[in-house]
Amino acid sequence: MMNTKKTTNKIFLPLLALCLTFGVGCDDDDGDDRLGNWVDRSIFDGIPRSNATAFTIGNMGYMGTGYDGDDYLKDFWVYDMEGNFWVQLSDFPGIERSAATSFAVGNKGYMGTGFDGDDELQDFYEYDPQTNNWSPIADFGGTVRRSAIGFNATSAGYVGTGFDGDNDKKDFWRYDPSSDTWTELVGYGGSKRRDATTFTIGNTVYIGTGISNGVYQDDFWAFNTTNESWTQLNPLDEEDDYDILRSGASGFTINGRGYIACGNLGAGASSSIWEYDPVNDTWEEKTPLEKTSRENPIAFCNESKAFLALGRSGNLYLDDNFEFFPFQEENEDD
User: Fold this and answer.
1) How many CA atoms, within 13 angstroms, populate the side-chain half-sphere of residue 303?
2) What angle do CA 178, 183, 184 make, to 5 degrees?
3) Which domain holds residue 118?
4) 328 Cβ partners below 8 Å, 6+ apart?
5) What's phi and psi for 220, nearest 5 deg?
6) Which range among 13-17, 155-159, 248-252, 281-285 shows the weakest confidence by mean pLDDT?
7) R_g (Cα) of the chain, nearest Å
8) C-alpha dihedral, 180 to 184 to 186 to 188, nearest 10°
């Protein structure tokens, strides 16, 4: 079932920085004052991997595809956040790939694009959890790409940025499940990038990080899903004590705050995590991930619970899984 093609151009796919330098722990003296506790949860049952893609429906986190250091993958799994267990589902129907993107609209998930070891991809598929079946939908409306971002509104999904094999991208597209059509959006003034991340608070999607032409991007944007308008926010390196620039991070939301976790700053994998306050447009560093630092992990969240799993640290591909409690004190015995 697995494609054994290899590539020396290992990218992430499809949510953090030194002092943790991705992989290197170097907490400063203020680290003891940070809040945030990481608790071990059920280890992933399948093959360790990075560059998978994930979406959440209710209390269920869905994850598939990725790269394990040798093979591109197409298996597909669900994690029960309340029950704390994994179940393997029907394989993703497209070719094996990494750096795909995904989103959920209503009670269905959508997954596509990515990289199969030779080519960037454009195909897209719908997953129905009720029947555990996949159906092909219209190909992504933009060019082929990998390492794009995906997110959703109430009745539509969105895909943007990424790398098409020749050029980093900055275009965004809306997918309408009722008509199976893609429509290009206008109004985004941000930079090109790949391996960016997002998190959603209410009707606003926050977009940032990523890399283009070897430069980590510092612009940070809010997208209002109600009127599809863009607002530029304070840059991610505006303050001297901000260290948020990175690629291959994961983003999630808990109780009205956004989080960017792990990723790569160029010197290896990170374990840092930053909390965003949308009211004041400010960031606060939290307790770093207490285990192996990583880039290209996945995240599940239902706004009251959040989990970070998988990813890689150098050539080590991971299968662990953690729940994050942002307002608890660190407990290394969890």
Assistant:
1) 8
2) 155
3) 29-325
4) 35, 36, 37
5) -135, 130
6) 13-17
7) 18
8) 100
Residue 219 and residue 206: Cα distance in Å, rounded? 11
- Domain membership flag for residue 9: no
Type of residue found at 213 = N
pLDDT tens track for 208-258:
999 999 999 999 999 999 999 999 999 998 766 787 999 999 999 999 999
Question: What token pair was written down for 257?
Answer: 């705050």
Structure tokens at 164: 């098409």
Mean pLDDT rounded to a whole number for the chain:
90
Instruction: State how many domains the chain has.
Output: 1
Torsion sign, CA atoms 234, 238, 241, 242? positive
Query: If 0-12 CB within 10 Å is exposed, 13-18 middle and 19+ buried, where does residue 23 land?
Result: buried
CATH number of the domain within which 186 lies: 2.120.10.80
Q: Tell me whether residue 253 is in a domain.
A: yes
Neighbour order of strands in the sheet with 85-88? 53-57, 60-67, 72-80, 85-88
- Distant-in-sequence, close-in-space partners of 213: CB < 8 Å, separation ≥ 6: 168
